[in-house]
Design goal:
2 copies of one chain form a homodimer.
Chain A (H helix, E strand, L loop, with lengths): L7 H13 L4 H9 L12 H11 L3 E6 L5 E6 L1 H12 L7 E3 L1 H7 L8 H27 L6 H25 L3 H11 L10
Antiparallel strand pairs in A: 1-2
The structure holds a DNA duplex.
DNA sequence: CATCACACGGTCTGTCTCGGACCGTACTGA
DNA sequence: TCAGTACGGTCCGAGACAGACCGTGTGATG
């Protein structure tokens, strides 16, 4: 019941249980696999340790069922729901973080062979196309279901990002970054002044 | 001289030293701050411990200078350069990872108040605009310098991503995700088949 | 009926990562 | 001479992470 620091991972767990109802870690593991997992990956071991922490903090309630195989089912307590709601309503200060090995390699490419870049770009184009196809398939499968509609919205963000990357690597391999730049400026209704901090 | 596992962080260190020449951790800290740091953040403490590991593995050479303040200067060894080059030439298997708290909140928003979403979106729009302004300023400052040109290219990727996010949140707040979708499809020369597997 | 393979459900471990608090040391200028 | 502040660095505890590993049921097979 002591207070703990809640990390994003904590909120993923709370959130998943809020959306799905009482769940075992294994349930979470599978559910995460084809939803949040796409844009916030973490090892499945966390889905066993994290609920334990949250239960210790009183945000989840544990009920152990022992018929046949041992199963720990966690459900949201009132204070768990409160914590989640408070987080959802709180301002988001951090900017998103990208971790892109390809971008790193590009940054340091001067040190290596010039030939590396086209290869890299070609790989990336393929990967992003594949990922786009996966996302599109998900939209196709679940897009019709009104119940899952709200969660599908984040897919649009994901797609937008994938396309952005795809356009970049394509332009790079075609040596046409300027056109990219121009298209970008055209596509956005004038971003306005940077609202000096 | 024993072998170590090289993480992306290791390559950031090797890469920075390759680009800048011999450096102290503090140099790296500052250099990272206004370059790689934008798309691959890590705590500065790593910039003290990581070079040590790399030196132990023979990829960096340490020279301690003791005039006045103690300074550890690391420089690239041949095998360090080789390791970096090999990495640059190696295929990149992992997809990029995003960590976006705002996206998480959006995903779980059904659980909270409906009013949260517009607020969130507005915040995000502002943040992305600010970040775009920072990037543009960097382009303006360094874009003219041919020496730093290669490294500027990654800024284009960053900008492309920022604009993608900006467009998404803008569309969301305007309730016009469909237009976003259509614009996306128009903007890309047909992505082609997902190249099975 | 025995047993084997395999999906299920879960645990554990060691190593790295992450922030952030904290601490001397020089230089600067009042 | 002293305070303030940039410099340069260390340390620590909590979490994140990958991945090896392990019991348990179940259905197929001989």
């Amino acid at each position: 019941m002591s207070t703990v620091r809640l990390s994003p991972t904590s909120y993923v767990v709370l959130g998943m249980i809020a959306l799905r109802g009482p769940s075992t870690p294994y349930d979470l593991k599978r559910a995460v696999g084809h939803s949040v997992g796409y844009f916030w990956n973490f090892p499945h071991a966390q889905l066993y340790s994290e609920p334990e922490r949250l239960a210790a903090a009183g945000l989840l309630a544990l009920s152990v069922e022992d018929s046949g195989r041992r199963r720990r089912t966690y459900s949201l307590t009132d204070s768990g729901r409160d914590a989640l709601r408070a987080w959802l309503a709180s301002p988001t200060d951090e900017h998103f973080q990208m971790r892109d090995i390809a971008e790193l390699k590009l940054f340091f490419n001067e040190v290596g062979e010039p030939g590396n870049v086209p290869t890299l770009a070609t790989e990336q184009i393929k990967q992003h196309q594949e990922r786009i196809a996966v996302y599109e398939a998900m939209v196709e499968r679940f897009g019709g279901d009104p119940a899952s509609r709200p969660r599908m919205i984040t897919l649009e963000l994901g797609l937008e990002m994938e396309y952005a990357a795809l356009r970049f690597w394509t332009a790079l391999v075609e040596g046409d970054l300027d056109r990219l730049r121009r298209a970008r400026e055209r596509s956005t209704a004038t971003p306005g002044a940077p609202t000096s901090e």
